[in-house]
Amino acid sequence: MPSKNLTREIEVDITSKHVINDIDHGDNVRVRIIASDDNWIESDAIAQLKKTAELPGMKLAVGLPDLHPGKGQPIGAAFVTENIIYPHLVGSDIGCGMTLYEFKKSRRKLKFDKLEKQLRNFESIDEEVADCVDSPPDLSAFDFPNELNKKLGTVGGGNHFFECQSVHEIIDEAAFDCINVNKNSLFLLVHSGSRGLGQHILTQHVSQYGGAGIKDDSADQYLLKHNFANDWAVLNRQVIADKIERLVGSGLKNILDVSHNHVYPLSASECEALQLNTDQKYWIHRKGASPSNQGLVMIPGSRGSLSYLVKPVISSNGHSAISGFSLAHGAGRKWKRSDCKGRISHRFTVKELESTPLGSRVICENRNLLYEEAPQAYKNIDGVVSDLVDAGLITVIASFKPVISFKTTRK
DNA sequence: ATGTAC
């Protein structure tokens, strides 16, 4: 693969703006986009990244190769702040992420026609499964509404999905061997989050404090709720897998779980790697960005393309500070949701959209979602992954091919 | 993304 010019770096001087809340932000903020010149990124997303970088206490704003516009702040971005936390930069789906499993039942015994039929029953057991989760999170600890736990084990809408996959190509044999899975197995990738809970927490926070950030010495309540939502999201993905185990009659072995919407403190060595004053406290906000400092990461493409299992590069001075210890979380949208129906419905029939060029099947009874999540609505994952490779942030272990993608059986 | 908001 030819080496490309990477990292368009923009220095934004915000010294004269926004002196609020006793937070000194006299230093320049660094705004960085990790993308090659041939990776098209919407100008709105770059404008949102720069705008967000002007928030008080901001030290570093990184756009990953899947950067695209969001609601006010961009998606596919990581933000390092000093002594302040911004709940709206985490967003409403706190703890949203990816979990990868290996089906224990051998691939030969998993017939795809039968598997599809079994998975089509996924939502018919929503209630009974949610009601018998072994140790449901204690919502009363924060006065959260009891109904929230009824969503445990549900996928949700938007870009959420689960997908059965097979190994397409192993690029790094040694690293693949370390994962201790069979290359002939079927795999399950689950993408979901904290459903109504994260939404509730953000709404509650905004109604109490407005859109401003919180100084971290008074952020305990938010952080406790945020951590609760992260745990809830991890459990949600686990319960989704439990349902699939039950429907398919195969065990599932967990390989990795990675959240891409959260805020966490940076360690002392990470602060040092970013050349930040270690007397202060620094926070990494990730909005649609995977951590590069927590082990292996799965970067899925659209339902019509490959997903990549990658190993973050650990540089001599720790994990890669250049990207704010973060990676792309997916391909990134190319088209706005509202544009998809108009662009796609006259080109493809529903039947055509229910399978993909890679031969996989799509379970999505909701017409709008079928258009909004069509492969054409997303950028090419290969370019996103090669940008991360060329930036020295990852090495690729293996690629995975979709077999069955599940969105919803509800109209 | 959300048992949305118009």
UniProtKB/TrEMBL annotation:
List membrane-spanning regions.
none
- Entries under InterPro entries matching the protein: RtcB, RtcB-like_sf, RtcB2
Q: Which cofactors, by name?
A: Mn(2+)
Name the reaction it catalyses: a 3'-end 3'-phospho-ribonucleotide-RNA + a 5'-end dephospho-ribonucleoside-RNA + GTP = a ribonucleotidyl-ribonucleotide-RNA + GMP + diphosphate
Query: Cofactor binding mode, per the note?
Result: Binds 2 manganese ions per subunit.
Keyword presence, GTP-binding: yes
EC numbers for this chain: 6.5.1.-
The record's family statement is: Belongs to the RtcB family.
Q: How does it assemble?
A: Monomer.
The name this protein carries in UniProt is: tRNA-splicing ligase RtcB
